[in-house]
Amino acid sequence: MHIRKSPRWQLKQAEATPESVYLNRRQIMAGGLAAGAIAASGGLGISKAFAQEDRMALEAARNDAYQLDRDLTPEKFNLEYNNFYEFGSHKEIASAAQALEARPWEVTIDGMVEKPIKMDIDELMAKMTLEERLYRHRCVEAWSMTVPWIGFPLRKLVEMAAPTSGAKYVRMETFNDPSVARGIKTQPWYPWPYVEGLTMAEATNDLAFLVVGAYGKVVADQMGAPLRLAVPWKYGFKSIKSIVRFEFTDQQPVSFWEQLQAREYGFWANVNPEVPHPRWSQARERVLHTGEYVPTQLFNGYGEEVASLYTGMEDLGDRLYR
Ligand SMILES: Nc1nc2c(c(=O)[nH]1)N[C@H]1C(S)=C(S)[C@@H](COP(=O)(O)O)O[C@H]1N2
Ligand SMILES: [Mo]
């Protein structure tokens, strides 16, 4: 694995963007301007700044086993349209999310394991073989995108953790610091921290991916730096961002959205066009960068990989799919 400043990207940025709107994060800081002040001074400047943000390049060979049935979503869309409630309950959180400090970052692995582990994110990344995978992403709100993630299978972290035989689930937790994420402070009615969970069978399925990068760079703050999950057969809210803890447990975790509204957002949340959300249809999805509506697929098109995880669970009915 190589992490380096990439002259390639910097050249591209300089070529593509007029000087006046090219502001990277370091320049914003050096200029003594809060990102918010720039945002207030004109939408164009700030949106260019985040689209062109000067993050470290991250190289990983593409795993061709995962093919897309549609175009890649341009990076700009992934950088400017986000769900990250810690920074606000709307899509324009990119600016606020720059307050996130992705280094140093300690990851705790505990619960039903032979020996609890605390590990720095860079140490964890150095232990893992990184690869690139092109995945679809389907939000429960009926929009979708595609992302070139860089990371490693969650299974590799499970193997490192060596859970005891009684462990049935992995529970994951996002950082919970109101001094960094203002949405935590201004929205105290939410059950912080953000929590998600998977069964051991789901967590060790090859599709379950831990993300540290995207678009050839370390993953952006607003996309869940420095470590997030991608479980593309489930609705997007299962793909928890900015993870600080993996806990192995024999209790089914109660996730953030399940605590808020269990009838609408359950534990399983597998994508299914035939099971509507109580307030809207899931039959179609809006492809973010084209605005086009396309049919939604069972398991978001990943049935071949994951359908077998759910055989014999028919008694759960619609609960498997919301
Ligand atoms: N910690 C945390 N993780 C989160 C969320 C969140 O609000 N907080 N939103 C989820 C939802 S609903 C979606 S659709 C995806 C969005 O990821 P993106 O902004 O990179 O597209 O992140 C998921 N992970
Ligand atoms: Mo979502």
TrEMBL record:
Mo-molybdopterin binds at residues 82, 85-86, 139, 174, 228, 239-241. Predicted to be exported by the Tat system. The position of the signal peptide cleavage has not been experimentally proven. It catalyses: L-methionyl-[protein] + a quinone + H2O = L-methionyl-(R)-S-oxide-[protein] + a quinol; L-methionyl-[protein] + a quinone + H2O = L-methionyl-(S)-S-oxide-[protein] + a quinol. Pfam families: Oxidored_molyb (PF00174). InterPro entries: MsrP (IPR022867), OxRdtase_Mopterin-bd_dom (IPR000572), OxRdtase_Mopterin-bd_sf (IPR036374), TAT_signal (IPR006311). Keywords: Metal-binding, Molybdenum, Oxidoreductase, Signal. Binds 1 Mo-molybdopterin (Mo-MPT) cofactor per subunit. It is an enzyme of class 1 (oxidoreductase). One of its GO terms (molecular function) is oxidoreductase activity. It comes from the Bacteria. Residues 100-257 form the Oxidoreductase molybdopterin-binding domain. Its cofactor is Mo-molybdopterin. Its EC number is 1.8.5.-. Heterodimer of a catalytic subunit (MsrP) and a heme-binding subunit (MsrQ). Part of the MsrPQ system that repairs oxidized periplasmic proteins containing methionine sulfoxide residues (Met-O), using respiratory chain electrons. Thus protects these proteins from oxidative-stress damage caused by reactive species of oxygen and chlorine generated by the host defense mechanisms. MsrPQ is essential for the maintenance of envelope integrity under bleach stress, rescuing a wide series of structurally unrelated periplasmic proteins from methionine oxidation. Belongs to the MsrP family. This is Protein-methionine-sulfoxide reductase catalytic subunit MsrP. It comes from Maritalea mediterranea.
